[in-house]
Amino acid sequence: MYILDTLSDISFYRIGLIFKYAINIVCIFVPLLITILCMSDLYKIIFKPDEAKTQVKKVFDRIIAGLIVFIVPSIVNYTMTLVDGYQPDTLLKYYNGASKQKISQLQEQYIKEQQAQANKEAAEYKEAGKRIQNEEAKIKQQKEEAFKEWQNKKNSQSGNNGSSGGNNDSSGGGNPSGGNPSDGGSNYSGDSTSGGTYGSVTVSNGVFTIPNKRATSDSDIPKQSGKYGLNPIFWERLNKFMQAASQAGYKITVSSGWRSYSSQRSLWDNSSRPCSQRSKWVACPGGSRHGFGIAADLKFNGSSCSGNWDCNAAAKWAHANAGNYGLKFRMSWEPWHIEPAQVKGGSFGSCQAKC
Questions:
Q1: Contact call for residues 158 and 185 (beta carbons, < 8 A)
Q2: In sequence order, what are the residues at sequence separation of 6 or more whose Cβ sits closer than 8 angstroms to the Cβ of residue 226?
Q3: What is the pTM of this model?
Q4: 156 by DSSP, 3-state: which?
Q5: Quick one: which of 322, 257, 262 has its CA closest to 292?
């Protein structure tokens, strides 16, 4: 039985019960009323003889009416029972079967059917959600496999064309088995410019050279023209790298780029790490490659992957492909820190900043 049918049955049984109550009320109160009126007429017959003739007729009429009122509902009830016995599917079943117990049973059945329907729909939604997740995972896997196939094909073509081709890098890629960052490429030639001098950094033939003297003020390491204040050639490589990641279905963003000398000094002074470990995590003021505009901190699908370079698929892709864009992750303990593949200079000596 469907829910709407159950609701209809409840309504019809309620109407049948009301009809039964109405007939019972008529059968009880109408004869009682007629009895009272007849007693009033008898009183008049006894104490008002001049009206006796008229009152006798009234009493007779009222007795006949009382019998009709009493007998007719009984006949109706009996007739409905007989008819319903021969035609059980007629609406008479709602009259004969009407009772508080019947209505209560139907209400309980209706509640159970509603709960069962709700459970069924919840199970269907859950199953549909699983199917969607499986389909999304399958599509993502297909995209990753298609990109790897394209990348392998590209690398194969580049290798056949010689070491001077495009973004080819002979030492690109990470080391998934050991968890080490990418070594970067030594023959990257995808820059739009051959080089130049940017602040205190010189770029020539893809090699970035920084001075062997620490900066001592903000003017020694000015903000560069690339986005995030980075060296423009480094930014060009980084931008191509992030665009390729996006095409592969990964989101790689920059969380920190160029830093002024005063900003680096503040990071050093406010670090909570002990002196013996501080320089590993916070570059000594004046020597940070962020200050020279040739370092950036990244996020991979929103995560820095602290202490774990392959924390998600975006990070794995980044560490495996950085070398193809003349970039590398130099510090294995900072999997978010990326730099140009080839950097020379920077012989600053021991850090003289106090802890």
A1: no
A2: 232, 233, 234, 235, 236, 293
A3: 0.49
A4: helix
A5: 257
Instruction: Compute CA 89 distance to the chain's CA centroid, rounded to the nearest angstrom.
Output: 51
Per residue in 8-62, pLDDT (tens digit) is 677 777 777 787 777 777 777 777 777 777 777 677 667 666 666 666 677 777 7
d(CA 336, CA 353): 25
Residue 120 · residue 126 · CB < 8 Å = no
Look at the alpha carbons of 144, 147, 151, 156 in this order and tell me if their dihedral is positive or negative: positive
Alpha helices (runs of H) in the chain, residue ranges in sequence order: 3-47, 52-86, 93-96, 100-161, 232-247, 261-269, 275-281, 313-321
Q: 187-231 pLDDT, tens per residue?
A: 577 888 778 899 889 999 899 999 999 998 999 999 999 999 999
CA-wise closest residue to 74 among 125, 31, 111:
31
Quote the CA–CA distance of 256 and 155 in Å, as a whole number.
Answer: 31
For residues 173 and 167, is the Cβ–Cβ distance under 8 A? no
Structure tokens, 11? 């309504």
Tens of pLDDT, residue by residue over 71-126, are 776 676 666 666 554 444 455 566 666 667 776 777 777 788 888 888 888 888 78
Q: Which long-range contacts (CB under 8 A, 24 or more apart) does 190-199 make?
A: 190/166, 190/237, 190/240, 190/325, 190/326, 191/233, 191/236, 191/237, 191/326, 192/236, 193/233, 195/233, 196/233, 198/224, 198/225, 198/231, 198/232, 198/233, 198/293, 199/224, 199/231, 199/292, 199/293
User: Quick one: which H or E segment has residue 298?
Assistant: strand 296-300
At 56, the amino acid letter reads V
What is the rounded CA–CA span in Å between residue 324 and residue 308?
22
C-alpha span between 291 and 199 (Å, rounded): 10
**Amino acid at residue number 184:** G
CA distances from 151 to 16, 37, 129, 316, 317 (A): 78, 108, 33, 14, 11
* Token pair in block for residue 46: 């006894």
